[in-house]
Amino acid sequence: MTGTIEAKLAELGVTLPSPAAPAANYVPYVVSGQHLYVSGQLPSDSEGLKFQGRCGDTMSVEDGQKAARLCAINLLAQAKAATGDLERIARLVKLTAFVNSTAEFGEQPKVVNGASDFMVEAMGEKGRHARSAVGVAGLPFGVAVEIEAIFELA
């Protein structure tokens, strides 16, 4: 634990996983100038994909929030792989979240709060961000949530 973000993660009982390899022809992150762009992360852990389903059908808001939180953990794992040290992150600029949901489901913002709340818990004021919460008809591998991020580097 070299810095305050990692210390807070330890306090929360969160161990960052090994970052997932890309599932297609793209890179997991790109550093451009002072910004780190992290490709969409799925809700997966060391055992594989979790939270497969559609909000408003087979997935509750609460399960969607857990999926979003897991996506956020994976975003930080990619950020650490990109920077070598989470303390290089000046702030989280934006999250863009996609929620696999029925046409009638309108609680995407509540689902994405699972990621937003976690980022603020883990990063403090650096974790406050702009965001989009978009409902979609489907996501890769049938997961409930996919989230991408833009970080500013110090």
3D structure, described in words:
The chain has a single domain, classed as 60s Ribosomal Protein L30, Chain: A, CATH 3.30.1330.40. The protein is of the alpha+beta class and 154 residues long. The chain has three helices and seven strands, in the order αββββαβαββ. A hairpin with a 2-residue loop joins strand 3 (44-45) and strand 4. The protein has helices at residues 4-11, 61-83, 108-123; strands at residues 29-32, 35-41, 44-45, 48-49, 89-100, 130-136, 145-153. It has a five-stranded mixed beta sheet with strand order 1-2-7-5-6. A two-stranded antiparallel ribbon has the order 3-4.
Domain count: the total is 1
Low-confidence stretches: none
H-E string: HEEEEHEHEE
What form results from the Cα inertia axes?
Answer: globular
Question: What does the radius of gyration come to?
Answer: 15 Å
Major sheet, described briefly?
5 strands, mixed
Oligomer: single chain
Specify the structural class. alpha+beta
Q: What is the percentage of strand-forming residues?
A: 25-35%
* CATH topology type: 60s Ribosomal Protein L30, Chain: A
Q: What is the second-level CATH architecture?
A: 2-Layer Sandwich
